[in-house]
Amino acid sequence: MDAKEKKPLEKVCMICAKGSLEDVYATLVMANGAVMEGIETKVFFTFFGLDGITKDKMLSLHTATTGNPAMRMPGGLPFPTMLGGLPGVEAGVSKMMRKQMEELDMPPVDEFLELITAGGGEIYACRLAVDMFKLTKEDLTDELSDILTIGEFYEMCDGDRTQIIFT
């Protein structure tokens, strides 16, 4: 093989540690894209990222409205951070984001997880975070492959053409 010949990516292992709407969706979009490209895909949800696979939270994720310098108002104007702390603002912004995603035919979180696993992707939860938040396997999506330690997840992430992506 020529040294300049491009070697395709074979496996992606993603770690989702944040539970905001935009962080969970970034993980799901990238994971689904990898599955669609035929890349072996493993997604590990830890700490607040567990909200993305927790049955009673996954469909009501919120957009971070404070401390988010990239947050924009309609028309592209910067979002005044101080408004984010006012009652109802976060819920309203989250509703607006969900509406925009629906208009783009983006599926809700539970359907996205189904698409990923139907395509061969695997969904994992972090043992430490599950124990820390006193969750059980029954609290988590039916698409869950297993609950693992981070060491067990890293063992799955071997191979020359593997990328670990922290979202």
Q: How are the SSEs placed, and which strands pair?
A:
Layout: E1 11-16, H1 21-36, E2 40-45, H2 89-103, H3 109-118, E3 122-126, H4 127-132, E4 144-148, H5 150-156, E5 162-166
Parallel strand pairs: 1-2, 1-5, 2-3, 3-4
What does this structure look like?
By secondary structure, this protein is of the alpha/beta class. It has a domain at 13-62 and 107-166: 3-Layer(aba) Sandwich (Hypothetical Protein Ychn, Chain: A). The chain is built from five helices and five strands; from the N terminus they run βαβααβαβαβ. It has helices at 21-36, 89-103, 109-118, 127-132, 150-156; strands at residues 11-16, 40-45, 122-126, 144-148, 162-166. It has a five-stranded parallel sheet. The longest helix has 16 residues, at 21-36. The chain starts with 10 loop residues before the first strand and ends with a strand. 29% of the residues are buried.
Rg over C-alpha atoms, rounded to the nearest angstrom: 17 Å
> What is the CATH class of the domain at 13-62 and 107-166?
Alpha Beta
Largest sheet: 5 strands, parallel
Class from helix and strand fractions: alpha/beta
Into which percentage range does the β-strand content fall? 15-25%
Low-pLDDT stretches:
none
Task: Supply the number of helical segments.
Answer: 5
Largest beta sheet: what is the strand line-up? 4-3-2-1-5
Name the helicity range.
Answer: 25-40%
Distance between the termini: 33 Å
Total strands: 5
What's the overall average pLDDT, rounded? Answer: 87
